[in-house]
Amino acid sequence: MSSKMMRGGYWDGPYSMTVMDVPQPDVGPDQVKVKVAYCAICENDVWISSGEFFEVQPPRILGHEFCGKIVEVGKDVKHYKAGDRVACNMQVFCGTCWYCHNGYEHFCQNIVQATGAFAQYAVVSEKACEHMPDDMSYEHGVFLEVTSAAMYSVERAEVKMGRSFAVIGGGAKAQLELMIGRQKGACPVICIDPSEVRRKKALEMGADYVIDPSSEDVQEAVLKITKGHGVDHVIESSGIPENCSLACDIAAACGTVNFAANYLPGTKCTLDLWQLRLMKQLRVHTSIQSPYLFERTMEYLPRMEVEKLITAIRPLEELNDAFLQQRDHEEFKILIKPWDEKID
Question: Are 234 and 168 contacting, i.e. CB atoms less than 8 angstroms apart?
Fold first, then answer.
C-alpha cells in the first residue's frame, strides 16, 4: 500500500460514513489512478450501507459511479495516459470465462473490483475506463454508469417505437429509463409514482402521463391512456415487491415486463401465472448492471439531459450527511466532490 495519503470516506457500519486520511491505492501494471472529480451516490450505495446486503460488508470505501482525470498509469497500460479525462466502470471482467464468452460478462467468474470512489483517488483497470469527449463536463460524465444500467433495462423491456411504455418508480434510474424510452420512440410514456416531486420530474424528463398510485386506480388509469389494452412495455423500477405484480397487471397481452430494481435477499412476490401465460402470454425479464454497454453509453450520453437530475453537489467531508439526505428525502442524484479545487 502506498505511503501517500488521501481523504476517503469509509463505510464503517449501518448508515455510517467516516471521512479520514487513508493510504492512496497502489497502481497495478494494467491499472490507472484516477483523480476523482465526482462520485454520485447511487440507490445501491444507500441500500448497501444499510448492511442488509450480505455480499458487501464494512469496513470499506464505497462509490462506483465516478469520473475524473488520470494522474498515473501502470507499466502495461496502452490506451490511456496521465491527463486523460475518463468515466469508469467499477468492475473489470476477465473475458475468458464461460460467462464472458457467452454474452454475460456481468456474471464473470473472475471480476476484479475498482477501489471505492468516495475518495480523492480511485484505481481501476484501463479496460474499465471510457474516454470522455472534450466538451463533456464531469457533471455530465459521472452519469455514465447509471445511464448504462438504464439503457440495459430499457433493452430488456424490448421497448419499441410507437408502443406504449411505463416505468413504475421515479428515482434517478427510473427517470433515465423514461428518457431513453422516449428517445427510442415509445409513446405514450407513463410514470407511476406516489411522489409529487418525482412525477413532476418525470414530466420534465419526457413522460406524457403520470399516475399517482396513492390516489388513483392504476389499472383504470392505464387502460384509459392506452385505449383499453394496457401497456406494451413495463419496467418495475421502484423496488417495491408488490409492484412486480402490478407491472404484470397493467401490461398488455403479449407485452414485456422487466423487473429492474433492487430487492432484498429472500424477497418474494405473488404473480398470477394464469394471467401471465394463458391470458396475456407476457415476456417477463429481469436486468442487472449493463453488460457490454459502457462504450455504447458513452456515445449516447451527450444526447441525455442528465444534469437535470443533479439534486446537490456536496464535499467529501459531508459524505455521511449526504447519504442520509439521499436516504431520507426525494433526491435524484447527489454528487460527491472530493476536491475543493476544480479539476480540468
Answer: yes
Please write the tens of the pLDDT for every residue from 20-55. Answer: 999 999 999 999 999 999 999 998 888 888 877 667
Q: What is the DSSP letter of 119?
A: B
- Residue 168 forms beta bridges with which residues? 192, 236
SS3 270: coil
Are the C-beta atoms of residues 36 and 4 closer than 8 Å to each other? no
- Which of 287, 240, 294, 286 lies closest to 267, judged by CA? 240
pTM for the whole structure: 0.95
E-assigned strands of the chain? 5-13, 16-23, 31-40, 60-61, 65-73, 85-88, 91-92, 112-113, 121-125, 129-131, 165-168, 189-192, 209-211, 231-236, 251-259, 283-286, 310-315, 333-337
**Grid cell for residue 327:** 436516504
Hey, what domains does the chain have and what are their CATH numbers?
A: 5-143+304-337 (3.90.180.10), 150-286 (3.40.50.720)
Cell 414530466, residue located: 203
**Placement of cell 487513508 in the chain:** 22
Between CA 306 and CA 341 the distance in angstroms is 23
> What stretches of 160-295 adopt beta strand conformation (E)?
165-168, 189-192, 209-211, 231-236, 251-259, 283-286
Q: Pull the grid cell for residue 29.
A: 501494471
CA 43 to chain centre: 8
All three cell numbers of 150:
438504464
pLDDT tens-digit series, residues 285-334: 999 999 999 999 999 999 999 999 999 999 999 999 999 999 887 789 99
Per the listing, cell 406524457 goes with: 208
